[in-house]
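User: I'm curious whether this sequence folds into something compact or stays loose and floppy. Could you predict its structure so I can see for myself?
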Amino acid sequence: MSENIKNEVLNYLKKHLYGNLASINSSDPKQPHATTIAYVNDGFNLYFTTSVKTQKFSNLEKNPKVAMTVDNDEPDWMKLTGLQIEGAIEIVKEQQIPSIFGIYAEKFPIIKGFSPNPEYRFLKITPKKIWLIDYTKGFGHREYLEL
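Assistant: Here's the prediction. I'll summarize afterward.
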């Protein structure tokens, strides 16, 4: 893997706040489900939190495979940049929560004021494939990382 591409992906993840997560609907495996998540990253690993009562959580319990995009709203197509990610989800182990919470609170300070809620879980996305999209290098330009 090119160190340059690796650094570009990591910088892109650090600079953005939200991603669009796609999963497979737990009650209808022919129906994808998409949702916006506020994520943090530790290297290539991505973390977010959600309630166990959400459709998203139900989907991920049944099928841990996910796809995700991170991008900018850019009206000029020739300035479009983004990431396309494929990977798998797992629930963060209890002993790892304090360090993940610390990373989350750094990026999203508002979470520091939230009371602990037993209905919420931190989830980890382990990417397997990442495409770096950068149309400033030419229309349709993509670079690929396999992790």
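Summary: The radius of gyration is 16 Å. The mean pLDDT is 94.
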